[in-house]
Amino acid sequence: MSVFYKINQKLFCDLCDYLSVTSQDHQSKLSVGVCRQCELKFFQPNREKWKNGWRPTTKDINKFKKEIEKSVYSILSEINNYI
In 29-42, which positions are buried (b, 16+ CB within 10 angstroms) versus exposed (e)? Predict the structure, then answer.
């Protein structure tokens, strides 16, 4: 059971809880602890604050997740229109 838990910890982003699937996601997860999108959105612009323990609020994370969902949904809708 503990092995499964450790695997889950590495597969999902610690901030957005989305599955980390790309090699960039995994690299960001190892170096910063979050997926690539969260690294670009939250870590990079706040690098010094992050190093001092700052993390985005739940409200900021939820807003970001809605933005991600909208972009994914629109891409899938476009693909579906062509099929």
Answer: beebebbbbbbebb
Widest distance between CA atoms in the chain: 49
User: What is the rounded CA–CA span in Å between residue 77 and residue 55?
Assistant: 33
Rounded CA-CA distance 17/35 in Å is 9
> What pLDDT digit, counting tens, does each position of 4-21 carry?
444 445 688 989 988 888
Tokens 């579906």 — which residue? 80
Mean pLDDT, to the nearest integer, of 45-74?
Answer: 87
Taking CA 26 as the corner, what is the angle to CA 54 and CA 10, rounded to the nearest 5 degrees? 75
**What's the confidence (pLDDT) of residue 5?**
41
Q: Where are the domains of the chain?
A: 2-82
Which pTM does this prediction carry?
Answer: 0.71
